[in-house]
Design goal:
By secondary structure, this protein is an alpha/beta fold. The protein is 44% helix and 19% strand. The protein is built from ten helices and ten strands. The structure holds 5'-O-[(R)-(carboxyoxy)(hydroxy)phosphoryl]adenosine and zinc ion. Zinc ion binds at residues 111, 115, 136, 269-270, 302. The site of 5'-O-[(R)-(carboxyoxy)(hydroxy)phosphoryl]adenosine has 20 residues, from helix 5 and helix 6.
């Protein structure tokens, strides 16, 4: 079964054709990052406009590169929540038009569910149940994935998402948007013991996270140094900060794995590309005899293939959108609307 997946929740316009939820036939991404870099973050209005310009060409290319056309597609899957509302609406309306004109079924896909599904593309033997740490620009969740379309949030961040915490600290360190990627690279050459930073936890909620205090301590450290005209070794600070964020993520995740008796641990979302996070979780899983899965780097960020993959499993479980499908800026991953 061939699914066309369409993604436009943030600053990537993407389309892909995936067979049976696992085999990627094409994966086309038009990134707007260079333009948003000028403003230090995503400008929602610009994002929507660029999606409008790119979406027809990106979808056309995805079909061509898969060696197929719309007539050979079985269903169209589209990200409808959560994300920037003006950006989501472009993909949703485009997909609705395509589905209506071609008579193909339309499948609405939750963005975080599709990040989780990126793992089905990279790990052919992975099947639920598993425990998943979803770490993206806007979310940090520990999710008990019981089945492809049945999941429960068991831990979450009380303030900043991990990606947001990386991006904001990186910006204070003078790195361009999206800072998390740069911070990760710079940290590789630094000493992660050079600065002593806190590892905040949430009282009585061992699977929850809180990053805003940690982020603020780094921003204050930089301000104080500037006022005193002292120079800060950025690679050392980046390494110490990355270590602190990753320690918090690993601590909560391994505690949840132990308590829930999970046998397989999966990571997903943009921050799952983080080198230290991948290394540390792999090591901890090895120690405990757990299977550890992560997406290939090309499927960590936003893409259409993960939408098509999750769309396949949603389709199999009977999920269909009506012509009245709307986009939604906020929606929990374990809610079905
Ligand atoms: O999942 P994603 O592409 O978009 C959202 O759904 O939010 O995640 C983007 C986030 C950004 O905050 C970006 O800085 C972060 O993922 N990111 C990283 C790395 N690569 C991307 N953060 C830390 N280390 C990385 N290697
Ligand atoms: Zn995302």
């Amino acid at each position: 079964m061939r699914i066309l997946g369409i993604e436009s929740s943030c600053d990537e316009t993407a389309a892909s054709v995936v067979e049976d939820g696992r085999r990627v036939l094409s994966n086309v991404i038009a990134s707007q990052v260079e333009e948003h870099k000028l403003y230090g973050g995503v400008v929602p209005e610009i994002a929507s406009r660029r999606h409008c310009e790119a979406i027809t060409g990106v979808t056309d290319r995805a079909l061509r590169e898969a060696g197929t056309d719309l007539s050979q597609i079985d269903a169209i899957a589209v990200t409808y929540a959560p994300g920037l509302i003006g950006a989501l609406l472009v993909g949703v309306n485009f997909a609705k038009g395509l589905a209506l004109s071609s008579g193909k079924p339309l499948v609405p896909v939750h963005h975080l569910r599709s990040h989780i599904a990126a793992n089905y593309l990279s790990n052919p033997n992975l099947t639920p149940p598993f425990l998943c740490l979803v770490v993206s620009g806007g979310h940090t969740h520990l999710i008990d994935v019981k089945d492809y379309t049945d999941m429960r949030i068991i831990g979450y961040t009380h303030d900043d998402a991990a990606g947001e915490a990386f991006d904001k600290a990186a910006r204070a360190m003078g790195m361009p948007y999206p800072g998390g990627i740069h911070l990760d690279k710079v940290a590789e050459g630094g000493n992660d013991r050079a600065f002593s930073l806190p590892r905040p936890s949430v009282d009585g909620a061992p699977y929850d996270f809180s990053f805003s205090g940690l982020k603020t301590s780094v921003i204050n450290l930089l301000h104080n140094a500037r006022q005193k005209n002292e120079t800060v070794c950025i690679p050392d600070l980046a390494a110490s900060y990355r270590r602190a964020v990753v320690d918090c993520l690993v601590r909560g995740t391994m505690r949840a794995a132990e308590d829930t008796g999970a046998r397989t641990l999966v990571i997903a979302g943009g921050v799952s590309a983080n080198r230290l996070l991948r290394r540390q979780l792999e090591r901890e899983c090895q120690k405990r005899g757990l299977v550890f899965c992560r997406p290939e780097l090309c499927y960590c960020g936003d893409n259409g293939a993960m939408v098509a993959s999750q769309g396949y499993y949603e389709f199999l479980s009977g999920v269909r959108a009506s012509a009245g499908l709307n986009a939604c800026a906020n929606m929990a991953v374990d809610t079905l609307e």
